[in-house]
Amino acid sequence: MGLLLRLARQWIAGETAEQGLEQVRKANSKGILGLLNLLGEHVETREDIDATVREYQKLLDLIERDHLLSQISIKPTQMGLSVDFDYCLQNYLQVAQSCFEQGNNHLWIDMENSPYTQLTINLYTKILSKFPNTGIAIQAYLKRSEQDIKDLIPLGAKIRLVKGAYKEDPNIAFKSKKDVSDNYSRLLTVLFTECTQDNFVAVATHDRKMIELSKDLARKSPKSKYEYEMLMGVRDNLKSDLVSEGKQVREYIPYGPKWLPYSIRRIREKKSNILLLARSLVTQ
């Protein structure tokens, strides 16, 4: 477990809010914006969920206090979606209100695995109707995502397009790397073609081909509002390249003691991470 934790430090700022904020400071010093996430999902007790809400509100206070350039992103099951929909909604609205009051900061809703997809979209549309400063992640590997995007755009949605990191059934998800990339390209085209001034696009990928495509699409749609989002510890040189081109770049910065499930997904996503872990085991 100790070796896995050492590897996880590549993608995780630490276990405390202050460690997360320190990573934001480092990112800001390089011209990169932050997107903080307290690690954790499938929280089952109201006591723990209420503590999560307080942690995010504290985080917003610290961001404002330290004049940091960072938004926050929260998983629905952290906020009680697997306990009660209305309870989860009220928790999100409470945090969204805090975002609005603190310089109109932005709240992003992470997308989890497919049993929660429609519920998360339902949550988002209700929150968006009260707080335009909210966005949602949409996963390109789900076959339903094109229709979801087309339904959300007229509502003024802010959409973060990711490829997706959960294991899903092939009946509902594209499985091959090529099919996922092809659908990501298709969805990017929809976003840049159909979004209006009310929308915002977060191109959340480390795939240089997708980034180059987005640049082409943006040139054809000069009024598009967009940025690039990448994970902490991944493709740092590419982040710097984009900043040097004058692009807005944001780094997803997770922190907290519940780092294991997140780290396992990161390792699954990138074979070189498994090789790095194996090399660490051999050299001990």
Structure explained in plain terms:
With 284 residues, the chain is α/β, with parallel strands linked by helices. The protein has a single domain (14-258), classed as TIM Barrel, CATH 3.20.20.220. The chain has helices at 2-8, 17-29, 46-65, 85-101, 117-130, 145-152, 177-194, 208-220, 236-244, 260-269, 271-282; strands spanning 33-38, 70-74, 107-109, 134-139, 158-162, 200-204, 226-231, 249-255. It has an eight-stranded parallel barrel, surrounded by eight helices. Strand 4 (134-139), helix 6 and strand 5 form a beta-alpha-beta unit. Helix 4 crosses helix 5. It starts with a helix and ends with a helix. 40% of the residues are buried.
Layout: helices, strands, pairs:
Layout: H1 2-8, H2 17-29, E1 33-38, H3 46-65, E2 70-74, H4 85-101, E3 107-109, H5 117-130, E4 134-139, H6 145-152, E5 158-162, H7 177-194, E6 200-204, H8 208-220, E7 226-231, H9 236-244, E8 249-255, H10 260-269, H11 271-282
Parallel strand pairs: 1-2, 1-8, 2-3, 3-4, 4-5, 5-6, 6-7, 7-8
The termini sit apart by 14 Å
SS element count, helices: 11
Q: Name the CATH architecture.
A: Alpha-Beta Barrel
Average residue-wise pLDDT: 91
The number of strands is 8
Helix content: 40-55%
Structural class given helices, strands, pairing? Answer: alpha/beta
How many domains, in number, for the residues?
1
Sheet with the most strands? Answer: 8 strands, parallel, barrel
CATH class: Alpha Beta
